[in-house]
Amino acid sequence: MQKFCQSCSMPLDNAGIMGTEKDGTPSQEYCIYCYQNGAFVAPDMTLPEMTTIVKREMEKRNIDAGTISMAVSSLPHRKRWKAQ
Ligand SMILES: [Zn+2]
After folding, report:
1. Which of 52, 54, 75, 84 sits between 20 and 30 A of 63, alpha carbons compared?
2. What own/partner pairs with CB < 8 Å and gap ≥ 24 does 65-71 have?
3. What is the pLDDT of residue 2?
4. What pTM does this model have?
């Protein structure tokens, strides 16, 4: 089963994209852009801010609109945002 970052919905499809825990082991839940050394890179980020960033970054990569809207609509279901 494919894993996705539980913060930004990026596919965690290779070891280089995995975030890191405090002890340096790879995170099984978050990507390197969201989570490093056991903490969120931007701890104060809100879901609307993340939505804007994800959309902008995907548009920059010329990802099709359907894929972008799927990624964006999956964000509220990710672990980081579920509690809010
Ligand atoms: Zn992420």
Report:
1. 84
2. 71/9
3. 82
4. 0.89
Counted domains in the chain = 1
Question: How far, in Å, are 28, 54, 55, 65 from residue 62 at the CA level?
Answer: 27, 12, 11, 9
- Distance from Cα 75 to the centre of ligand 1, integer Å: 10
Cα–ligand 1 centroid distance for 67 (angstroms): 16
Whole-number Å distance, alpha carbon 28 to ligand 1 midpoint, is 11
- 8 is a domain residue: no
Ion ligand 1 — residues with CB under 5 Å?
Answer: 5, 7-8, 10, 31, 34
> Which residues of the chain are under the pLDDT cut of 70?
1, 84
